[in-house]
Amino acid sequence: MPSARRSSILAAASVLLLLAAGAGVLFAASSSVEVRVDGQVLTTRTLANDVAGVLDHFDIAVAPADRVDPPPDAAIRDDLVIVVERASTVELQVDGRAARKVTAVVDTVDDVLRAAGMGNLLEREARITPPPGSRVDDGDRVEVQLPSAVRIRVDGEEHRLETYADTVAGALDDAGVSLGERDLVEPPTARTLTPGTTITVRRVEIVEEVVEVAIDHGEQRRETDELLEGETEVVTEGHDGLLHRIYAVTLVDGEEEQRELISEELVREPTDRVVNVGTGQEPEPEPAPEPAPPPVREAQQLLAALGYPVGPVDGIDGPKTQRALCAWRRLEGREVSRRPLQPGEVEALRATDGLPAARTPGRGVTVDSTCQALYLRLDGRWQEVHRASTGTDGLPRAGSYTISWKREGWHTSTLYPAPEPNMYNSMYFHDAIAIHGSHQVPPHPASAGCVRVTPAAADQLFATLRVGDPVRVIGAW
What we know:
- The chain contains eight helices and 27 strands.
- α5 runs parallel beside α7 (345-351).
- The protein is α+β, with helices and mostly antiparallel strands and 477 residues long.
């Protein structure tokens, strides 16, 4: 029995020795491997021939986009470190187009763009959200906006611009182009911007322009028998008028596109040219006057020496001589008339010594409608006798008046307008009736009611008489 037991023990010991020897051989043939995956570190001794066998050993599934280093077909060596990096899926959207999914081993936005084959965008002026360098996780989204290249034509120049603006207005703002309220923009400012768009800005301004327009003057032709037929006389030279037309002119890029008349202003009225046209006939030759008797010529000489307006000393006893005789008779207290020279009057003229004293003291004038003469009184004496011509309608009426106001120089009557000024140094004494200078002082009534005297007489009277001085009208024609 002891022998058999010893034999059993020896047999068992032999088996154990054989098992221990086999285990030692296996341990000596295995390799030490470390696997880093999903934030874990796994270690083992393995008899696997490649990395894939190790991953199978740990039941680690690897997706196609996952990164394994060394790769699955790499041979196993002792102390090998296997790193498994999981791929992430990130959405990538460029310029608002449909998003694409990028599945790759990525840590940052930069990795996503490179994995999508768009790494060049990192070198361009693109807007990237989140910004480059930012970390990304599975399920994140990266948006890229590229600038739009546009052309802007404005103020005679063309500019190229890359902009992130969404609309035409935004692109103009990025380009620093200010718009006036009337400027025209094509495409319209609210239009959505697309790459390659050409924006045209047309400057519009409205300015006022004044255009001077001449208004042709007319001509008035007046017939008069004071000129012979075929003769003409320019009374008033005509002058063209002037009209200002004001336009609103629309300028587009400095060129006129439209104009609108907004107002007219009459600057100067045209003045007609006034021409007198003769209708008179050549008068028959007057017979030579018969020689006047010598007393008439002497009477004219004596009257002129005394200061009476006798006219030419020609020996003709005409209206001018009769006016002077009438005035002499008036002041000398004789019978007043416009009769020719009467017997005995030459002798009386020879005895007359200057102008007589007046019956009224002080300063004033007397208008003699009978004789068509005017007498100036100073310091109680008759100072001057002037030719006069009163109104054809019997004005002014006989009576006593005073000078109410004076108007110096030439002017036109407001009641009886004339083409040329016809009143000079006027002295008004009864409403619109005045003593005034005129180039026409015939020896008979010829005015519209005033008292005409010569311009020289008007100068003396205007300088001598004052407002308030008396004016006496006597006689009748």
